[in-house]
Structures are given as structure tokens and as C-alpha cells.
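Suppose a colleague, Dr. K., hands you the sequence of a protein chain of 129 amino acids and asks what its three-dimensional shape might be. Before reaching for any lab equipment, you can write down a predicted structure in C-alpha cell form. Begin with the sequence itself:
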Amino acid sequence: MPRVLVIDDEPLVAKSLRIALRDEFEISGTTDPALALELLTSGDSYDVIMCDVAMPNFDGVEFYARLHELRPELAERIIFITGGVMVPTVQAMLDGLPNIVLTKPFDFPELRELLRRGTRTELPCVSVS
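The predicted structure, expressed as C-alpha cells, is then:
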């Protein structure tokens, strides 16, 4: 079963994704981007990484930068997720990355299809709102 890691400071996000997608994907979640970084650099493997943009410890863009430095092939698997409004500097950084950006609340059929493509390593490099 394809594995998806969800990094979001709201634990209910991972829980809702786990419930909605459990028939097709193994969803794991953490509220701590530092723990996620540790997992991913210690050999734990995920097909797709969904990462919230705005988190208190360090944000999704910083998480991407750290992961890209340590495991660039995994940084390509990140789908950024956001509640919507972003400060212009963060938006500019995301615009400069090839990763998909999804806005909450999720359109689950669309998300399911993105995850299917991502687990076949065909994740497109476009922004979806």
C-alpha cells in the first residue's frame, strides 16, 4: 500500500486524511516537522509527503529546504498544504518551487488522484487551488 506522510500542526488533518483515504493509502502523521525530518533522513520511506506551509516550529518552506539539503530526491515528493492566505514572501518562495500547493479544505477525489499519480512517481509540478 502506498505510504503518505502528513506533517501538519493540526493533528485532525492527518486523522481526517487517514479516515478518508485508508482504503488506498497508508497515512502516517506528525505535528512536528523536526520529527518528520528525522524519520525521512533515517531511512523511513514514503511515496508522498504532505506538508503544511504554516507551522509554529518551522514552516513548510524551511522543512523543504532542510529535506532538500539532506535528501533532495524526497523533497520532490512534497505536496504543500495551506489554509489559504499566505504572507507574500512565503508565497514567492512557494512559487519558485516545482511542488504542488493544495488549499484546505481538500477536494478528496482530486487529492486521491494526485496521490495516485504521486505514488507512481508521476507527480506533476503545478499549483492546484
